[in-house]
Write a structure and sequence with these properties.
Largest sheet: 6 strands, mixed
Number of helices: 10
Bound molecules: pyridoxal-5'-phosphate, zinc ion
Order of helices and strands: EEEEHEHEHEHEHHEHEHEHHE
Shape: globular
Number of strands: 12
Strand order of the largest sheet: 3-4-12-9-10-11
Strand content: 15-25%
Helix content: 25-40%
Oligomer: single chain
Structural class: alpha/beta
Distance between the termini: 40 Å
């Protein structure tokens, strides 16, 4: 039960302290490979895997809202939808946010900073409230009023930054560099993936086997990277005998991972990331990147709604790609990432 140190591709490693968010070389922080314990407990939440999350070192019980352990619905033979929008704050970001906030508390932080265009910010704000940690959430101008109301409702301070998503991140980093705050970044802090990797654990447990293909939305890649890490751990421990095919989905109007340049606004605001910081890691983790059009996203969302599943537009992206691809090896699993009630 020891918290792993951060590592960096340059060879340095760093203890977790509140002020650390990147390597001295400027590189991205990573975590070493984790050797799976795989003794799922009786919890009805992602904490059934507590021994495999952040080295089993987090004190999570008082923070948890029962995140994870979301329903898996077989929508048609061989196509499974995982209802990630059935999460305490309405998106899968709860899996990572609870881990980051528990980490902030372990590091003794009484203040944290995060930046997000929506769901990550609301999730971090909710768990910070439970932890009694003051939160300042930086958002780009134009973020939906519903999400801002949710963030403020949790007691966090909202700072609206004019300009691009990158300008928002820069403003948050500037605040962090002033000192005294933990940077609860779903992009830079690799412990976020310790939470999102439970998506893979759950799929394997719920299906009773490895999926043949997982179709995942990708913006900053927190679900892609987490799921890949989870499957790799399960594979290394022999719980599954091969890796599923990982298909990342982007909106055609903003698809840097598909090699596109030039970005237009998209209804899939949750994945509209023009320059993902972990681009190389994401491309190593995926087997294929596909894109979906605005019309496909809209049609997928409407089709889901007619089947009783109410998601925000970004929440329909993975389904849009999975539903049209009949050649993927099954079982195929796609998450519905964010609730329609947020939109
Ligand atoms: C955050 C989010 C995504 C994409 O996650 P990334 O980590 O940016 O790849 C997809 N859908 C919804 C609803 C989200 O909130
Ligand atoms: Zn480094």
């Amino acid at each position: 039960m020891t918290l792993p140190n951060y590592t960096c591709a340059c060879g340095l490693s760093h203890e977790v302290v509140a002020s650390r968010w990147r390597c001295d070389c400027g590189g991205l922080l990573e975590l070493p490979e984790h050797e799976l314990v795989w003794k799922p407990g009786g919890e009805g939440s992602m904490w059934r895997y507590a021994a495999d999350i952040a080295g089993g070192a987090l004190d999570w019980a008082a923070l948890s809202l029962g995140e994870g352990r979301t329903p898996l619905v077989e929508e048609r033979p061989g196509l499974f939808l995982k209802l990630e929008y059935v999460a305490p704050t309405g998106s899968f970001k709860d899996r990572g946010a609870v881990v980051l906030v528990a980490l902030a508390r372990l590091a003794g932080a009484d203040r944290l900073v995060a930046d997000s265009s929506g769901n990550a910010g609301t999730a971090v704000a909710a768990y910070a409230a439970r932890a009694g940690i003051e939160a300042e959430i930086f958002v780009p101008a134009g973020t939906s009023e519903k999400k801002l109301t949710q963030v403020r409702g949790h007691g966090a301070q909202v700072t609206v930054v004019p300009g691009t998503r990158e300008d928002t991140a820069a403003a948050a980093i500037e605040r962090v560099e002033e000192g005294g705050a933990f940077y609860a970044s779903h992009v830079y802090n690799p412990f976020f993936h310790e939470g999102t990797k439970t998506y893979a654990y759950e799929l394997v447990e719920q299906l009773g086997r490895a999926p043949g293909t997982v179709v995942l939305p990708a913006g900053n890649g927190t679900l892609v990277l987490g799921a890949h890490r989870g499957f790799a751990e399960l594979r290394a421990a022999g719980v599954i005998d091969r890796m599923p095919r990982v298909v990342a989905v982007q909106a055609e109007r903003c698809a840097p991972l598909a090699g596109r340049t030039g970005f237009l606004p998209t209804v899939a605001e949750g994945i509209a990331i023009a320059d993902p910081a972990r681009r190389e890691g994401i491309l190593r983790a995926v087997d294929e990147v596909v894109t979906v059009t605005e019309a496909e996203i809209g049609a997928a969302r409407a089709e889901l709604a007619r089947r009783g599943l109410w998601v925000e537009p970004t929440g329909a992206v993975a389904y849009a790609a999975a539903a049209r691809a009949r050649h993927y090896e099954g079982p195929v699993a796609a998450p519905l990432c964010g609730s329609g009630l947020k939109h």
